[in-house]
Structures are given as C-alpha cells and as structure tokens.
Write a structure and sequence with these properties.
globular, alpha/beta, single chain, about 170 residues
Amino acid sequence: MKKLILMGRVAAGKTTLTQALKGEQLHYCKTQYINYYDTIIDTPGEYTEVHALGAALAVYSYEADVVGIVISANEPFCVFPPGCAAMVNRDVIGIVTGIDKPDANVPQATRWLELCGCHRIFYISSYTGQGLSDIMDYLREPGDAPAQLQTASPEDSASRNTPKGQERHA
C-alpha cells in the first residue's frame, strides 16, 4: 500500500478517517502529535493552522507517497491557499469527510479542494463506510492483497461508534 499523510484543520476528521481505514472502532481522540502508522501518517490540525508548525508537515510529507488534503463537508472556511498542491512533489488528493452530516456542504468543500489543485477527490463518511473502499483502492499497489474494511452499517454506526453524549466529529 502507498503511504498516505493526512493534513487538515482541527476537527476535519483525519483521526476518525485513520481509525476507519485501519478497521478500528471509531471514537473521538484528539491527535496531539504526528502519529506514524504502517500506511497512514495522521497529523494534528494545529500543524496545518499554525504557520510555525507547518514545517513539520513538509518534513513528514517526504515519508509519504500520497498527501491527502482533508476538508470536512461542514467547515466554515478553508485554511489551504489556492494552488498549494503544486508545491508538493507527491500525489495530492482531496478528501471531503463528514458527507453524511446534516449541515454538509459537499459542493463548497469540493470547490476548495479544486482550488488547492486536487484533481482526485474522495467523498467519505467514516461512520457509514461510504467512500472508504475508494481510497483503499487508490492506495493499493500492484501485488497488494485486497483490504478488508470493517465498517458499520448505517443503522448501527451511530449507536456503536459514537460515545454516549458526544457528537460525531468526522
């Protein structure tokens, strides 16, 4: 599998997406530092939002084959500048998370990712599993075994994966 680094603002759904791609039960967990897994690098949103921390993203992007710019479908603004994908010498994909949220504005998030320079955009619900297989197929290299995703059905995803009293974050 190609290694994917996820970059996006706080609460964009990077860690939840990481959990879903790894087949783990979904639970809210604030990423405090860069988490380096076999095929995924999960980064804190502060590294995208705070200029002084941005250099760490540049360094870690060299460890990845693919850079994923993550924007939640209900974000009020985009922190990425237009054309930023042109500065990266890796494949850059766009990922719209939270497409199942009631206040999702998927067309707006898509426009922002297109302005960033993303030519390939994936639409994800980490809770229903929608779109996860598309990213897995994209990251699969010749000779890789097909990945088995463990996703919840739409009927039980909210009750099984969302801690009681907390709202969904991705």
